[in-house]
Amino acid sequence: MTRAVLLETRALQIGSAHALCAPLDLSLAAGELLLVSGDNGVGKSTLLRTLAGEQAPLAGQLLTHGSPRIRHLPQHAGQQLSGPFSVADLLRLNGQGDLQHPWVPAQRRQRVDRLSGGQRQRLLLAMLLSQPGDLLLLDEPGQYLDQTSQAQLQDWLAEPTAALGLAAVVMVSHDRLNFPRAQRLHLQGLADG
Length: 193
Fold this sequence. Notes:
This protein is α/β, with parallel strands linked by helices.
């Protein structure tokens, strides 16, 4: 069975003032997992922002097919949660007031800014993974998670078609997660000069 292509790039160049890596040619279909790796500063987070439509490419083409619903979890997103609102408030604001997920804190009256880094990350991941979407863009999702939570996340992402309803996943990770069926993209920075 051929899966529908959700997103493809043709000679895509990413960066702000100058290209961070060589032009990228990618094709991502429903149910696929793409792991992105590379040294710091080579454009991994920039690639996700570009795929999410949050940052314009420098050159090349970014093509989406069928208007895929794209969900993006930026790096350090959990650490940016602040303010005197509760878990219940955050869920309500996101239209998920009745969300039942093992990673949502049982004490919904607890203030979000009093959660640990791992609790915040699990909460954001629970919210993201529970929303309908075709393409998940995850930037270091295992960051701040304990080993048990990293293993659960790995199980959920290992088979996007089953756990996430045909969503494709692009994930930046430095963690040593085992995804034998994943595609891999290693970004290398461009040499100066």
